[in-house]
Amino acid sequence: MADEQGTVTLVEHLSELRRRLIYVAVVFTVVLVAAFFVVRPIYQYLTINTITGVEIKLNAFSFWDGVGVYMQIAMVVALGITLPFTLYQIWAFVSPGLKPKERKATLRYIPYVFLCFLIGIAFGYFVVFPLAMKFTAGLNQELGLIETYGMADYFKFLMNVIFPISLLFELPLVILFLTQLRILTPQLLRKMRRVAYFILVIISAMITPADLFSAFLVLIPLIILYEISVLLSSRVYKKQLAADAKRAEEYSG
């Protein structure tokens, strides 16, 4: 009987997961279709020279370059817009197994995840990407190379710069979530500060051009994000200790 109940529960969970995935797929498809109407202005904005300061003329090296870039921009727009809805569906799927307080706490993460993602994209595009373009253009000129940019390579380079940074900007939320799960503590984060800084130095050097100024410019906000994470972790940890003390008092009383 227990096995039958377990089987039914598993089937129900899989059905619920399939339903949530269908919701996400439908919304994503609708948004993707709508995104095609804004691809052209986005493309024109992403290729203007005022951001990078580098004069570029994009070229198509295959018949499918234009189609590929068009689809890529539409996909990115659709993914960004549907991100909050996708996160909500994930929350709705796991929420039945959470306590009421945990449900409220995790639900509050959704808008902040989206906000941090947008801030990371903005920082990557307006700060890091122009530095990377100026560095590569300057190096090409020193080597006497003729700059002929393919549109597919340009957008691949753009995404490779922006997306790692947008994910790094989720660091405070990840640490806050792990603290709430009691996996991390502020004491451990402070103890690991030197190691964390070293890792952030490596990351900033990897996602920026090979000059110290650019790497340092990216490293500063990453360190600030880490310190914000430590502060948020401390606040959550203090609340946890207070709640534990209150429960211990009630139990002993």
TrEMBL record:
It is found in: Cell membrane; Membrane. The keyword S-adenosyl-L-methionine does not apply. Keywords: Cell membrane, Membrane, Protein transport, Translocation, Transmembrane, Transmembrane helix, Transport. It holds the Pfam family TatC. The keyword Membrane applies. It is a multi-pass membrane protein. PROSITE patterns: TATC. The chain crosses the membrane at residues 21-43, 63-88, 109-133, 161-183, 195-212, 218-237. Belongs to the TatC family. PANTHER family: SEC-INDEPENDENT PROTEIN TRANSLOCASE PROTEIN TATC (PTHR30371), SEC-INDEPENDENT PROTEIN TRANSLOCASE PROTEIN TATCD (PTHR30371:SF4). Forms a complex with TatA. Part of the twin-arginine translocation (Tat) system that transports large folded proteins containing a characteristic twin-arginine motif in their signal peptide across membranes. This is Sec-independent protein translocase protein TatC. It comes from Paenibacillus aceti.
